[in-house]
C-alpha cells in the first residue's frame, strides 16, 4: 500500500515534509530565509497576495498564500508550522517567538471585556501572572479550579457567580507543573459544551508543553487549541525560546491575524533551529522517557526520598483513570519530596555533579530545581500548599545522558543531603 503524510509516522517526515528542494537550488535542507520582505513578480501578483492576506477574497483550492513580508509569512515559519501539525494531527499551526507569546496571543485574541475564563491551577508562572494580574485589568473575569475539584464543584462555582452565559474559554495545563497532577480533558470539553450556545462557542485551550507533542494529543480529546512552549521538548537543546499554537484552520486563522498585529511571530533563524530540532524529536523524547522511568524507580526505594511524583507510578484511582484516558506516555518529568525541607533540598541541588541546577525542562541535558523558591516562588503560600509545592519538593527534567551516570549523580547528591 502507498504511504503518505497521513499514514507515515511524523518522525519519518520531519526531515523533508513541506519543503521543495527545487525552489532552493536543490539544497537538501531548507535555507534560512533571512529576509524581511519578498519581491512580487508583478503588481497584479502583489494585489492578489494582499487580497488573500487581508481576507478580501477566499484562497483558491490549491492556492498558497504568496510570500509578502516576514511578519505575515516566511518559508522557515511556514514549513515549520506544517511539520508541527503532523504530531497533533492538527489542521494548522502558528509559531511564536516564545511560549508566553503563543499563550497571551490566544488569550487576548479570543477574550473580550466581560467574558469569563475558567482555568486550572497551578499553571505556568508567567501564564498565572498574565491571567490574574493583566487580563483582569481588561475586565476579564476569572475562575480557577484544581485537580482535586470535581465537575460538580466547578459547575457550582460558575453558577454561583452567575457566570454561565459569560464563559468563553476553558484553559488548562495538564499534567500540572511541578506535581504532575492531571486534569480530565474530556470533562473540560463537557463543561465547555454545556455553556456553548449557537452564538458563542466556549473554547478549550490546553498548554501541552509538559507532554508534547509525543505523549498527549489534546485535540483528540476535544480541545480546540493546543499550546506549546517550543523552548522545551520541541527545541530540546536549551538554546532557543519559541512557542506554537495548533488547531483548526478557522481558529488558527484568527490566531495568526492577532499575531500579525502583535508582531510576535518567530524569526527565520528560530524557525530553522526548530526544524533542525524536530528531526530528532522522537529519538530524544523516547530516550528521555526511558531514562526518567529508571530515575523514578530508583528514587522510589531511596530512604532519603519521602514521595515520588511520577506518572509511571500511578496505580489506581481517579488520576490513573485520567492517565489511561488521555496520556500516551509517562513523560520525562519526575518530582520528589526529599526527607526534610528546604535545607536538605538545597544540599541535594548543590551536590549534583552531572545534572545542572537550572529551571526549564525537556532538553537533552538533565536539569534540577527547587519549585517553591524558584519556578513557583510567585505562587501564594496557601495555593502552594494546596497544590503540593512543599519546601521539600525537587523537580527533575531528565535528559539523554547515560542512565547509570544519572543515577550515580542522584545517589551521591542524596548521600550528602
Ligand atoms: C516554559 C513554559 C511556558 C512559557 O514558555 P516560554 O517559551 O518560556 O515563553 C509556558 N507553559 C509551560 C508549561 C512552560 O513550561
Automatic annotation (TrEMBL):
Keyword Lyase assigned: yes
Keywords assigned by UniProt, alphabetized: Lyase, Pyridoxal phosphate
GO terms assigned for molecular function: carbon-sulfur lyase activity; pyridoxal phosphate binding
Highest taxon above the source species: Bacteria
Xref: CDD domains: CGS_like
Residue positions where N6-(pyridoxal phosphate)lysine is found in the record: 232
Name used for this protein in its record: Methionine-gamma-lyase
Amino acid at each position: 500500500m502507498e504511504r503518505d503524510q497521513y499514514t507515515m509516522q511524523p518522525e519519518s517526515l520531519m526531515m523533508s515534509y513541506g519543503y521543495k528542494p527545487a525552489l532552493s537550488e536543490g539544497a537538501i535542507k531548507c535555507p534560512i530565509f533571512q529576509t524581511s520582505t519578498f519581491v512580487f513578480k508583478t503588481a497584479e501578483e502583489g494585489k492578489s497576495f494582499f487580497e488573500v492576506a487581508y481576507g478580501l477574497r477566499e484562497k483558491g483550492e490549491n492556492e498558497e498564500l504568496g510570500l509578502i513580508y516576514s511578519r505575515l509569512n516566511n518559508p522557515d515559519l511556514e514549513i515549520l508550522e506544517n511539520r508541527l501539525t503532523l504530531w497533533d494531527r492538527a489542521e494548522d499551526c502558528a509559531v511564536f517567538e516564545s511560549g508566553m507569546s503563543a499563550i497571551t496571543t490566544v488569550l487576548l485574541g479570543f477574550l473580550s471585556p466581560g467574558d469569563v475564563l475558567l482555568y486550572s491551577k497551578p499553571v505556568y508562572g508567567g501564564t498565572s501572572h498574565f491571567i490574574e494580574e493583566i487580563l483582569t485589568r481588561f475586565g476579564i473575569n476569572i475562575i480557577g479550579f484544581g485537580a482535586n475539584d470535581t465537575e460538580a464543584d466547578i459547575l457550582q462555582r460558575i453558577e454561583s457567580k452567575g457566570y454561565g452565559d459569560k464563559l468563553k474559554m476553558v484553559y488548562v495545563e495538564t499534567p500540572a507543573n511541578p506535581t504532575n497532577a492531571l486534569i480530565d480533558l474530556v470533562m473540560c470539553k463537557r463543561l465547555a459544551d454545556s455553556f456553548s450556545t449557537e452564538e458563542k462557542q466556549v473554547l478549550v485551550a490546553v498548554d501541552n508543553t509538559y507532554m508534547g507533542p509525543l505523549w498527549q494529543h489534546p485535540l483528540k480529546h476535544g480541545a480546540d487549541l493546543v499550546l506549546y512552549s517550543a523552548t522545551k521538548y520541541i527545541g530540546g537543546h536549551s538554546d532557543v525560546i519559541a512557542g506554537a499554537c495548533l488547531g483548526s484552520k478557522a481558529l488558527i486563522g484568527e490566531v495568526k491575524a492577532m499575531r500579525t498585529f502583535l508582531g510576535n511571530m518567530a524569526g527565520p533563524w528560530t524557525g530553522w533551529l526548530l526544524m533542525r530540532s524536530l528531526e530528532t524529536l522522537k529519538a530524544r523524547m523516547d530516550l528521555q522517557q526511558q531514562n526518567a522511568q529508571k530515575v523514578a524507580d530508583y528514587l522510589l526505594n531511596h530512604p532519603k526520598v519521602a514521595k515520588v511524583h511520577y506518572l509511571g507510578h500511578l496505580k489506581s484511582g481517579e488520576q490513573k483513570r485520567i492517565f489511561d484516558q488521555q496520556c500516551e506516555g509517562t513523560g520525562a518529568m519526575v518530582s520528589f519530596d526529599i526527607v526534610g525541607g528546604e535545607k536538605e533540598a538545597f544540599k541535594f541541588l548543590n551536590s549534583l555533579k552531572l545534572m545542572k541546577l537550572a529551571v526549564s525542562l525537556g532538553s537533552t541535558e538533565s536539569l534540577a530545581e527547587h519549585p517553591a523558591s524558584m519556578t513557583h516562588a510567585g505562587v501564594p503560600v496557601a495555593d502552594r500548599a494546596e497544590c503540593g509545592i512543599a519546601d521539600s519538593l525537587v523537580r527533575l527534567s531528565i535528559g539523554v545522558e547515560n542512565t547509570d551516570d544519572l543515577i550515580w549523580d542522584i545517589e551521591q547528591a542524596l548521600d550528602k543531603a
